[in-house]
Amino acid sequence: MENYFPENFMWGGSISANQAEGAWNEDGKGISVADLAKFQPNETDYHKQWLVTRADIKSGVQTHDTTFYPKRHGNDFYHHYEEDIEKFAEMGFKTLRLSIAWSRIFPKGDEEKPNKSGIAFYNNVFKTLKKYNIEPLVTLSHYEMPLNLVLKYGGWYNRKLIKFFLNYSKTVFTEYKQYVKYWITFNEIDSIFRHPFTTAGIIEEDYPPQKLEEVIYQALHHQFIASALSTKMLKEIIPNGQMGCMITRSLDYPETCNPDDVLLAQKLNRNNYLYSDVQARGKYPSYIFNEWQKKNINVDMEKDDLDILQNNTVDFISFSYYMSLVSSINDNNKEKVGGNFITGIKNKYLKTSDWGWQIDPKGFRIALIGLYDRYQMPLWCVENGLGAKDTVNEDGSINDEYRINYLKKHIEQMNLAIRDGVKLIGYTPWGCIDLVSADTSQMSKRYGFIYVDLDDYGNGTYSRKNKKSFYWYKNVISSNGEQL
């Protein structure tokens, strides 16, 4: 296959602070919403760990347990970052997507002055990345907002959080402007409907069920305004800075050519585009106002809000892509599959991962073309990968051919999308080093090129070991995607 990757293509990997760093109560860091995510060994409905009640919060803040709150230890990137970045450099990374833990900079979120130890930590991380010529791509808010902002203000439902987020943004833009050019405001901002507590600090039991959708839309609007104003601020502090939005690209197929199935899939795909429409086009799509009116949803907006959105759009669209889904108007008694907190009908043409996520490389190409045709704006795939169970052989090797095959097929389709005219900036596969899974809070659901000796209960040495995929991806990068 002919190679269409541009010479300056940003190959790399992706992690988040709440799943990797650990050190949850060290050096002045405040407790975050991620520190309440529980590992529930016998629970197969992984959605339950994201439904956090006030009772869960009360018990969580009273314990220092890290066994059943594994995001508190992560893979201990906080103490291993130099070793880890050196390994990323050995693979040839051009970029590393990572996040800053808001509660490490502002432990409670509403302080005027930042935590100096938190500032120093990321300074050291960015200096180390610069040492190896790895460009950081930094997410400001990746499921790790300070818990205090939830308990004291009600999360993003309260407009006051815009001010706190901008104070945080201004601080990190100013502190790290010599190191960081590429930024993202909110990770998978659309996830606010899938897990309102983790994404926006909304405690669902605080609101009547019939009110909850309005509350979520209001919180989302506040995040949109915060994102736009943060983008404006970035241009003032870092003139050559680039800001991106980040969405989950949840691609839906109609089950049949029945026009009703097609209309349903179209509706679901359209709903998925809402979030990038607002941040990339600078306005709400017209149908959303009709939907709010029909449902009697009132979203309070200040008089300049729509102008703020219009005048401060993002520079690129970043997204995660793991799977596709099938939708039907007649889905009763049909086998369902899901992943990333989204469910649909099983696609008989696709295989699934160990955790039931449908594997669809060609869907990746469809998603890329659809996004680029809609926005004509640079794209960046910042999450893609296979969560799987790895086995360490007696000789210490880890032969993860399944991961190589998964990534190979997706990179092939990415190459074809570029041939088809898509402007793609980079590719950062998720969990380039094993970390705690977002949806299951497990270590055994591994994505990385680098194995971390740690089990689901926090037992292990935290030592790092290269998998077979490590050397494969190193070759992919050195050949700029030509040798797969």
Care to give the gist of this entry?
This is Beta-glucosidase. The chain has 484 residues and is an alpha/beta fold.
Could you give the topology of this structure?
Elements: E1 10-14, H1 17-20, H2 54-61, H3 77-91, E2 95-99, H4 102-105, H5 116-131, E3 135-141, H6 147-153, H7 160-176, E4 182-186, H8 196-200, H9 209-237, E5 242-248, E6 251-254, H10 259-281, H11 286-295, H12 305-311, E7 316-320, E8 324-327, E9 336-339, E10 342-345, E11 351-352, E12 358-359, H13 361-375, E13 379-383, H14 401-419, E14 424-427, E15 450-452, E16 464-466, H15 468-478
Parallel strand pairs: 1-2, 1-14, 2-3, 3-4, 4-5, 5-7, 6-8, 7-13, 13-14
Antiparallel strand pairs: 9-10, 11-12, 15-16
Helix pairs in contact: 3-5, 7-9, 9-12, 13-14
How is this structure best described in words?
The structure is a single chain. Strand 11 (351-352) and strand 12 form a beta hairpin. The chain is built from 15 helices and 16 strands. The protein has one domain (10-251, 276-284, 309-323, 357-478): TIM Barrel (Alpha-Beta Barrel). The protein has helices at 17-20, 54-61, 77-91, 102-105, 116-131, 147-153, 160-176, 196-200, 209-237, 259-281, 286-295, 305-311, 361-375, 401-419, 468-478, and strands at residues 10-14, 95-99, 135-141, 182-186, 242-248, 251-254, 316-320, 324-327, 336-339, 342-345, 351-352, 358-359, 379-383, 424-427, 450-452, 464-466. The mean pLDDT is 95. The chain has an eight-stranded parallel β-barrel, surrounded by four helices. A two-stranded parallel ribbon has the order 6-8. A two-stranded antiparallel ribbon has the order 9-10. Helix content is 39%, strand content 14%. Helix 3 runs parallel beside helix 5 (116-131), helix 9 (209-237) crosses helix 12 (305-311) and helix 13 (361-375) packs parallel to helix 14 (401-419). The longest helix has 29 residues, at 209-237. It is an alpha/beta fold.
